[in-house]
Design brief:
Largest sheet: none
Number of helices: 2
Number of strands: 0
Distance between the termini: 54 Å
Shape: flat
Order of helices and strands: HH
Radius of gyration: 18 Å
Oligomer: single chain
Length: about 80
């Protein structure tokens, strides 16, 4: 059986190298939970979204940044 490492310890190592340019401690905690529940890869899982785009806003009101989350609202 492997040794247990705290989320804070896992977060501290990359933070000591990359300073502020590292994921938050909360994000590290979510990743730890996913791996404890059986996840085996850091690669994004395929997602399927089906919708009728006819009733949706087609032009963003602001630039969409990499890794930014956003929500579509029908008008």
């Amino acid at each position: 059986m492997g040794t247990w490492t705290s989320v804070s310890d896992i977060h501290r190592l990359p933070q000591s190298v990359y300073r502020d340019d590292v994921m938050s401690r909360q994000t590290v905690g979510r990743w730890c939970s996913m791996f404890n529940e059986g996840r085996q890869s850091v690669e994004d899982e395929e997602r399927f979204v089906a919708c009728d785009w006819g009733d949706w806003i087609t032009q963003p009101t602001a630039p969409i940044l990499p890794r930014q989350t956003f929500t579509f609202f029908p008008h």
